[in-house]
Design brief:
This protein is an alpha/beta fold. It has helices at about 15-20, 70-80, 100-105, 150-160, 180-185, 200-210, 235-240, 245-250, 265-275; strands spanning about 1-10, 25-30, 60-65, 90-95, 110-115, 115-120, 130-135, 170-175, 190-195, 215-220, 230-235, 250-265, 280-285, 290-295. The protein has two domains: about 1-95, RRM (RNA recognition motif) domain (Alpha-Beta Plaits); about 150-295, Vaccinia Virus protein VP39 (Rossmann fold). α4 runs parallel beside α5. The protein is elongated. The termini are far apart. The structure holds S-adenosylmethionine. The site of S-adenosylmethionine has 20 residues, from α4 and α5.
């Protein structure tokens, strides 16, 4: 492929971008020509909202073409347009073919939860020390083991779900990728329900469970019925407060509630919200996040 880049003022960005698209560019991107210098301008936008400005004072437009002929034709045609005045061609260069799959995959290394428990993408060999291992690829749903909240829940599982004891009934409420439910299975839980309000998370959980030879039931929150020995909920403080009566009602006598997604400064408000049912305590901390647990 071939990349044509040009420099223009903010007023010319729209006309030139439209023209490049009309000339069969595969993609057109606009960036600050002064990025990484003292003259760099910060433009802040909200996802899904129109850009705050069409471009920067000095904008660099980069258009990608399938062939050199297309890129050269576009360059020649643009240069004779009146709206090209004041702009300049920066370069026309060939873009090397890249193995994007390999480049993307190389960014995801195995994640260590404890010395012998790892989250390992399918394209990696498990580390030699990994006695327990979850095979998980980054996908649409949250939960690849890289977030402190997920890691704290998994560490709790390693310490408290015991393969030698009776099969534990576990509820993963807000399962995302299903990582906690699968982690519980790896440590001996045998009766596992994983629920999420996001149907894409349910799909992801089913696929990840199958890839790990784990049997569980996954579905929307209504699937959670009755009481469980362990209730895991890594959501966020506000929904956790709203869910307090529901989550507590799912904790069996002698069972444990394990919650993450809570910032250190939210400890007291969570304790107060759960006080009518359970006494929460902080049992782990990482990067400003806390793990709050309670026993019935
Ligand atoms: C932070 S992710 C946690 C994913 C995974 N359990 C982990 O520990 O990495 C929170 C998940 O909770 C789900 N969620 C948010 N509010 C929920 C609610 N009220 N009921 C059920 N699931 C909810 C989200 O869709 C998301 O998948």
């Amino acid at each position: 492929m071939f990349e044509l880049s040009l420099l223009c003022s903010e007023e010319r960005v729209e006309d030139l971008s439209d023209a490049l698209e009309a000339l069969d560019a595969l993609s057109v991107s606009v960036e600050d020509a002064d990025a990484q210098t003292d003259a760099e301008q910060a433009l802040f936008g909200e996802p899904g909202m129109p850009a705050p400005k069409e471009g920067w004072n000095r904008s660099r437009i980069v258009a990608l073409f399938q062939t050199r002929v297309q890129a050269e034709e576009a360059q020649a045609l643009l240069q004779v347009q009146d709206f090209f005045e004041g702009s300049e061609i920066l370069a026309l260069t060939e873009v090397e073919d890249q193995d994007w799959v390999r480049i993307t995959q190389s960014q995801f290394a195995p994640v260590e939860i404890t010395r012998d428990f790892w989250i390992v993408p399918s394209w990696h060999e498990p580390p030699a020390a990994a006695r327990h291992c979850i095979r998980l690829d980054p996908g649409l749903a949250f939960g690849t083991g890289t977030h402190p909240t997920t890691r704290m829940c998994l560490r709790w599982i390693t310490r408290n779900v015991d393969p030698a004891r009776a099969p534990a009934r576990v509820l993963d409420y807000g399962c995302g990728s299903g990582i906690l439910a699968i982690g519980a299975a790896k440590f001996g839980a045998r009766d596992i329900v994983a629920v999420d309000i996001d149907p894409a998370a349910v799909t992801s959980t089913v696929a990840n469970a199958a890839a790990n030879d784990v049997t569980l039931q996954a579905g929307l929150p209504d699937m959670a019925q009755g009481v469980y020995d362990v209730v895991l909920a890594n959501i966020l403080a506000t929904p956790l407060k709203v869910l307090a009566p529901l989550l507590c009602a799912h904790v069996a006598e002698g069972g444990a509630l394990v919650m993450a997604g809570i910032l250190e400064r939210q400890e007291d408000e969570l304790k107060a919200a759960y006080a009518p049912w359970l006494q929460l305590e902080v049992s782990d901390r990482e990067d400003g996040w806390i793990l709050m647990t309670a026993r019935r």
